[in-house]
Every structure is written in C-alpha cells, then in structure tokens.
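Structure in, sequence out. Go:
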C-alpha cells in the first residue's frame, strides 16, 4: 500500500484504538488499492450486519491487552513479545523497562496468579500436569465423561477490571474464576466467575462453556468433535448416584477458592 489516507494511526491510549479502527475501516479500506475487492465486499457486508453494543469499545481494549499492550505515561507500549504464545504473566524481574514504566493492576494480579501456581508445586497439591486444571484424572468416576471432558477445557483465572465489561460479573478484583484454556479468555470471552457454588453447578454454566468451546478459534477441531460426541453419548453413561452434580461442583468450587486441599 502506498500510504493511502489513514493507512497508519498512532492512538495514544488503548481507549483510542476503537476510533482508529473505525477510521481505518471507513476511510482507508475503501480507497486502498492493495485491499482485495473480496475483502472490501466482506467488510461492507459485516458493516451491514453488525450491531453496536456497549462493550464494542472495550473489546478492542481487551484485545490489545491480550496481545501484551499497556498504557504508560509515554503512550501505548508492549510489556511482552506479542508473538509469544505464553500466557499473560508479567515478569517479576527488573529487566523489562516497559513493565516497570507501565505496570498495571491487571498485570500485578497476573503475577500473583503465577506465584499461586508455584505455591501449589511447593505444597505438592496434585500432579504437576494437573496444576492448570480444575478437575483431575481421579475425578472421572464422579461425573459423566462429557462433564469431565468439558471441565478439562478450562483453567483458573482471576477477575480484573477489564472483565467487568465483558464477563459481566459483580465479583471483586482478584475474585477467582475460570477461563477457556485454549484462548485464555481472549478479550474477556470464555471467562466465567460464578459467585456461589450453586451457580457454578447450574446447567446454564456448563452450556455457556460448551457454546464457547465450539466457537473458540484457538480450540482444536479434534477437541470440539470429541466434546460433541461425548455430549451425544451422555445419555448412555453409567447412572451415577443422585446429587452427583452438586457434589462434584462443590469440590471444584473448593479447589477454585482453596477451601480444601486439591486431591
């Protein structure tokens, strides 16, 4: 592209990314000769179908944060390599100047989560391979294969200010919940913060997780196919004792909020 109008934008804060994207879409995309006609037509179709919601601006902010961007006094900076596949944990050392300048509450909470995992290793709480899971191999006898497989697709996380707009939870900052282990709850989607053990055990929570996994772009197709198959076979699963669902999710709740020692 020969630098057609609005080819480049330099928003000074994450909150300005939304306006920059809108300007690129309305001004630049239509006149850029290097944008394929099929892409332009698809963008036009999306504009016709799209409906603005209050969380649209927050989506772009959360997406930027998921890539490692942060607001600093010097503008937007990366606190980590955006091409890295690592989860969003802030280095605790002093080698990164960007982190020192632009460290946020969310990053501090992520660092705490990292330390929590380390503490689990020290305490010997569960197999090393299970540290980032809420359900363990030994739990399979408690629930149908479908429920076990479904809950193996999530991992612990903590509530941040950004989650208030997308995850729609009323929990306090730092409240423990869980997120899709494939996309790490990208842009706030695939994150869940049930406020009680009872709400965690509801069918609607399981249905929401199932729906997200099937739509998650990071989740392998083989996992999606297996999930659908196990749900179809759920009715053929061995009959469990009455109340198994509440018993199982009480255990999960206890692990999530450290009310009992992980098995």
């Amino acid at each position: 592209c020969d630098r057609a109008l609005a080819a480049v934008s330099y928003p000074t804060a994450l909150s300005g990314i939304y306006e920059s994207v809108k300007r690129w879409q309305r001004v630049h995309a239509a006149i850029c000769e290097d944008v394929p006609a099929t892409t332009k037509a698809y963008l036009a179709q999306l504009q016709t179908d799209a409906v603005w919601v209050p969380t649209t601006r927050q989506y772009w902010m959360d997406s930027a944060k998921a890539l490692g961007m942060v607001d600093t006094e010097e503008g937007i900076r990366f606190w980590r390599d955006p091409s890295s596949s690592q989860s969003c944990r802030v280095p605790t050392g002093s080698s990164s100047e960007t982190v020192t300048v632009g460290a946020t509450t969310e990053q501090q909470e992520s660092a705490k989560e990292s330390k929590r995992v380390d503490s689990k290793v020290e305490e010997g709480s569960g197999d090393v391979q299970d540290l980032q899971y809420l359900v363990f191999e030994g739990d399979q006898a408690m629930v149908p294969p479908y429920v076990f497989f479904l809950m193996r697709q999530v991992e612990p996380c903590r509530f941040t200010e950004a989650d208030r707009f997308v995850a729609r939870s009323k929990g306090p900052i730092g409240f423990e919940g869980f997120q899709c282990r494939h996309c790490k709850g990208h842009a706030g989607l695939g994150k869940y913060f049930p406020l009680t053990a009872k709400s965690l055990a509801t069918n609607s929570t399981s249905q929401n997780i199932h729906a997200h996994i099937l739509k998650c772009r990071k989740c392998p197709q083989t996992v999606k196919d297996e999930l659908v198959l196990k749900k179809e076979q759920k009715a053929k699963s061995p009959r469990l004792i009455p109340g198994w669902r509440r018993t199982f999710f009480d255990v999960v709740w206890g692990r999530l909020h450290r009310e009992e020692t992980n098995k």
